[in-house]
From TrEMBL:
The lineage of its organism: Bacteria, Pseudomonadati, Ignavibacteriota, Ignavibacteria, Ignavibacteriales. This protein is involved in the repair of mismatches in DNA. It is required for dam-dependent methyl-directed DNA mismatch repair. May act as a 'molecular matchmaker', a protein that promotes the formation of a stable complex between two or more DNA-binding proteins in an ATP-dependent manner without itself being part of a final effector complex. One of its GO terms (molecular function) is ATP-dependent DNA damage sensor activity. It comes from Ignavibacterium album (strain DSM 19864 / JCM 16511 / NBRC 101810 / Mat9-16). It comes from the Bacteria. Keywords: DNA damage, DNA repair. This is DNA mismatch repair protein MutL. The chain holds residues 10 to 331 of 614 of the full protein. Residues 200-318 form the DNA mismatch repair protein S5 domain. GO terms for cellular component: mismatch repair complex. The gene is mutL. GO terms for biological process: mismatch repair.
Length: 322
């Protein structure tokens, strides 16, 4: 663990929320059906994610904490058509450089699991342990060795808010997965697997179920599905517009604008429509998400995408009672 590693880590790991995001995404990539997030002190002292996914062999577990170890890219063209969430093999090594990392993991084929722990001097401790199939990654004392970064962290309340937002954004995109979230030993969220509508109700409020208009449309290279909210659940501030591009949560002001425009005659000043929309597009037609924490995306055919969304949302609004 050297200076270059710590600097690189700063790019991926900006705050406890970034760790939460990377660990949850890894569990999803590992095909977990149950994912549990445990944090203490807003993630500053502990972030732990446990899953029942495919797990890792001992070799994989040691490899995954080395720089640029990823099992998700095998050829160069994969890079252009990334479908999994992780693709750079940088997260775990970066997290390991700025925290006390421990991994417990076991594959379905193994009789016994592996525990890997990084000690302060970068020494790797390895043990055989009995665990359930799947992986538990725990990240203690984030930035303990980079005091300047540690000092930059905001209050527990603010850091917790970021974690909750990310947890919900990810849970929203995966209603087929059970998610649990413990904060300082108390269970805050327990989302059972179900439909997208059910997940929306779990995260936001039960009364949303009657106020959702389905959206579903598809062209040759573009599809859009999800829900938009009726006027009864218009929001008074921005921030509850959930757009996912190929399953990743993103911001794109053009898409937001297209949806807002579709609602134009119905929106009163200060109203913002609620929506959860999933767009699938050929990955080669979007500016690849080079930076891990960058949520902004750019489409090659911005105008086409805008017009598509506008038309689809207008049609959905038009064919439902508001
Ligand atoms: P990436 O996700 O970009 O491949 P990471 O640093 O996040 O890079 O993870 C490195 C590798 O470690 C992954 O490619 C995967 O093989 C393995 N890995 C990480 N987390 C898990 C997990 N929860 N279950 C199984 N394998 C995992
Ligand atoms: Mg990853």
């Amino acid at each position: 663990e050297n200076l270059a590693n710590k600097i690189a880590a700063g790019e991926v790991v900006q705050r406890p929320e970034s760790v939460v995001k990377e660990l949850l995404e890894n569990s999803i990539d590992a095909e977990a059906k149950n994912i549990e997030l445990i944090i203490k002190q807003a993630g500053k002292s502990l972030i732990q994610v446990c899953d029942d996914g495919i797990g890792m062999t001992e070799e994989d577990a040691i490899l995954c904490i080395q720089k640029h170890a990823t099992s998700k890219i095998s050829t160069l063209s994969d890079l252009e058509a990334i479908r999994t969430l992780g693709f750079r093999g940088e997260a775990l090594s970066s997290i390991a450089a700025v925290s006390q990392l421990e991994i417990r993991t076991q594959t379905a084929q193994q009789e016994i699991g592996t525990l890997i722990r990084i000690e302060k001097e970068g020494e790797i401790i390895k043990e055989k342990v009995s665990v359930n199939k799947g992986t538990c990654v725990s990240v203690k004392n984030l930035f303990y060795n980079t005091p300047a970064r540690r000092k930059f962290l905001k209050s527990d309340a603010t850091e917790l808010k970021h974690i909750i937002d990310t947890f919900n954004r990810i849970a929203l995109a995966h209603p087929e997965i059970n998610f649990k979230f413990y904060n300082n030993d108390s269970l805050v969220n327990d989302y059972k697997s179900g439909t997208l509508e059910e997940r929306i109700a779990q995260i936001f409020a039960d009364n949303m179920l009657d106020a959702l208009i389905p959206v579903r449309e598809k062209t040759e290279y573009l599809s859009l599905h999800g829900y938009i909210g009726k006027p009864s659940i218009f929001r008074k501030s921005k921030g509850e517009q959930y757009l996912y591009l190929n399953k990743r949560f993103v911001f794109n002001k053009h898409i937001n604008h297209a949806v807002f425009t579709a609602f134009e005659n119905i929106l009163e000043k200060g109203d913002y429509p609620f929506f959860v929309l999933f767009m699938e597009i050929d990955p080669s037609k979007v500016d690849v998400n080079i930076h891990p924490s960058k949520l902004e995306v750019k489409f090659d055919d911005e105008k086409d995408v805008y017009n598509f969304v506008l038309a689809v949302i207008k049609k959905s609004i038009g064919s439902h009672d508001l």
